[in-house]
Specification:
322 residues, 43% helix, inorganic pyrophosphatase (n-terminal core), five-stranded parallel sheet
Length: 322
């Protein structure tokens, strides 16, 4: 029986996969891509008797491909925390889906495995900007606060590595990073000894230094919008920088736009947990938009729609947070 792992190329997808494989999951083919490459299930060939584990990509986006797998007799196990829409009722589907704002896919896998690889779940939570949850998981794993800070740095760096317009923007392709992680059951040992991780961490430090001078392009009460320059480093930092800017502008919604080489913009949106309008609901108003309650994005915003987006963003979140 063949098995396929489909996973988001960010920290949450990687750490969810890491936990399952360390806990004795079957060997299988890896299907992944850059962070925004989420229509991944269509790359799996439907086959009776085969199985597929899907991690950290929206069921709604992948619905047609999942239904095709189920119709062919492929067993599908699905872990995710993004908008799912109606979950199919099928004996071949094993859903583990929770849209709560304090949950990520690594936490769902941690629950499933009853904490067997909890330190990696903490890395995934940190990478998904769930800092309090990451610290709690690290403490439950018996780690010190200093060790938790190392896990936070690992999660932040490997999450940063997933952002880019294409694999050529990334320091390490996510599938290669997954194989490197598998050689290190302990994330502290991974941080100390992996040369691949050190390359990612150094790239993160260099790129974030370039991002330090970014200033708002538009700002009003409750809503702050940034536009990055057209450069590979800017495409790589977009997700991590959006998380950092959300912390720096606590209580306000943040939008970060990164120019695409083909024209238009890639958009990241972060909103406070208590906002009455979710980031996901706002981004879904635009074609190619989606995500979750506090963090969402738009995969392609036409250049001519920039002012329209800025006005809609300010109007939506000014009313929410003012």
């Amino acid at each position: 029986m063949t098995h396929t792992y489909v996973f988001n190329g960010d920290a949450d997808g990687l750490c969810a996969l890491q936990q399952l494989r360390l806990a004795g999951g079957p060997p299988g083919r890896l299907v992944t891509g850059v962070k925004r490459d989420i229509a991944l299930v269509e790359r799996v060939t439907p086959e009776a008797g085969s199985s597929c584990t899907v991690l950290d990509v929206s069921l709604d986006v992948n619905r047609a491909a999942v239904l095709a797998l189920l119709a062919a007799g492929t067993h599908v196990r699905y872990f995710d925390h993004h908008f799912a829409g109606d979950i199919p009722t099928d004996a071949g589907l094993e859903p583990h889906i929770d849209l709560a704002p304090n949950v990520c896919t690594s936490i769902l896998v941690d629950r499933y495995l009853e904490g067997r690889c909890r330190s990696w779940a903490a890395v995934g939570a940190f990478g998904d900007s769930l800092t309090d949850e990451g610290r709690a998981l690290a403490a439950q794993a018996g780690l010190s606060s200093d060790d938790a800070e190392i896990l936070r740095a690992v999660g932040t760096a490997i999450n940063y590595n997933g952002y880019g317009e294409s694999l050529t923007d990334l320091h390490v392709p996510p599938a290669d990073l997954a194989e490197e992680m598998l050689r290190h059951p302990d994330p502290l040992e991974f941080a100390a000894r992996s040369q691949v991780y050190h390359r990612v961490a150094e790239g993160y430090r260099t790129d974030m230094a370039l991002a330090a001078d970014v200033r708002p392009a538009r700002q009003s009460s409750g809503a702050v919008l940034f536009v990055l320059p057209d450069a590979p480093w800017a495409r790589r930092v977009s997700g991590t920088l959006a998380n950092d800017l959300a912390k720096a502008h606590a209580g306000e919604a943040v939008a970060l736009l990164s120019p695409k080489t083909s024209g238009g913009y890639l958009v990241s949106v972060r909103v406070p947990r208590d906002a009455r309008v979710s980031a996901e609901a706002f981004c879904r108003k635009f074609p190619t938009g989606g995500g979750r309650k506090t963090a969402a994005g738009i995969n392609h915003l036409p250049a001519e729609a920039l002012n329209e987006f800025g006005s809609a963003f300010e109007n939506e979140f000014k009313a929410v947070t003012a």
